[in-house]
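Q: Predict the bound structure with IPE.
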Amino acid sequence: MIAKPDVVTEPGQKATCLPGGLRHVGVIMDGNGRWAQARGLSRTEGHRHGLDSLRRMIRHSVAIGLRFVTVYSFSSENWNRPETEVSFLMALLRRFVQRDLSEIHQANVKIRVIGDRETLEPGIRQLLVDAEELTRDNTGMTLVVAFNYGSRDEITRAVRTLAKKVEAGQINPVDITGDMIGEELDTAGIPDPDLIIRTSGEMRLSNFLMWQAAYSEFYFCQCHWPDFDEVEFDRALADYAGRERRFGGLKAKAL
Ligand code: IPE
Ligand code: IPE
Ligand code: MG
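A: Predicted complex:
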């Protein structure tokens, strides 16, 4: 069971126990395939173990009082993988929602899905809608699942929506602000990630939260996603605690 967090905060409030006002962690769960290959297993075995790792991370995030966790589960470019692997990943999402949803709901976690749903199979689309519906009034952590997600696609869709509003005469192009763009993104209403963790040694965003990560801190670790545990997570949070975020300004003591 996922334990209820010690520190209960309402949405919008800061969890006071976390360093540097840390509220939102984004995770690029990478390295499932390499983890499996290093053990002579199939890549799909790696994804299976990756799901265990995800469960562990959600439980830990709830326990320490994080407000938002965004997990990169399937990118808009992951369709370029062999059909068997893509089908397996779709089945894994189904399994995750079907098996874990009640536990997630009981832990007062709200689910939000970002990414393009239109191109997903209707059954999966419905499953995601149902998960969001069931948990919509939960007031604990928000688990943002990035599925069939890519920043370029997200921004393109947002631009289309704004262009339609311009076409309809609802807004004037000169009045478009960054905030208005943010409100058209899938992540509308979700604070930008404070910290983005990527496992498996790759040091790139791979189309993850490019707009939202403008001032995020980054943490890269060598371990593959299936090996990512509470100790690794705490290590990332401790590293974040030592960072100084300036957002283009100056250190408080320099003012
Ligand atoms: C991350 O692991 C999971 C997904 C992208 C769905 P990978 O499958 O990318 O594993 P590597 O990077 O090939 O080892
Ligand atoms: C990013 O990992 C996508 C997910 C973790 C879901 P990839 O493995 O797809 O990224 P690249 O291809 O190495 O950049
Ligand atoms: Mg990868």
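A: Confidence is low (pLDDT under 50) at residues 4-16.
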